[in-house]
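PROTEIN DATA CARD
Card holder: Putative Actinobacterial Holin-X, holin superfamily III
Chain length: 134
Origin: Tepidimonas aquatica
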Amino acid sequence: MAMPGDDAGSRAEPLLTAARGWLRDALELARVRLALLGVEASEHALALGTSLALLLAAAVLLSAALVSLLVLVTVLLWESQRVLALALACGTLLGAGAAAAWAGLRRLRAVSWFEASRAELARDVERLRGGPRA
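Structure generated from the sequence above:
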């Protein structure tokens, strides 16, 4: 003779198995996406570190060259136009600093951070909504 609780238990078991499978798939998907995010983060960090090192070297060398040039111009014009020479030196340094700051900010805004991860997550959302499968 069948017990009333046995019928409910037998119906719940496939549902529980399906829920476990769905949860396992979701966790695996999250693990893969986090791994992709980690790879992208390390690539971005390496590229950023290399760029910063090169930019720092360029800034130091160009600054030394610019200061040397400004000292040369100031020494050449010291007897006749010393105020003009110093004003040109200050203006040149201010202009170069402003141009470097503008270029650096523009470059930072142009970087598309974690583009592959965002694209994968967008495809995941589309698949979950029942969209086309890729």
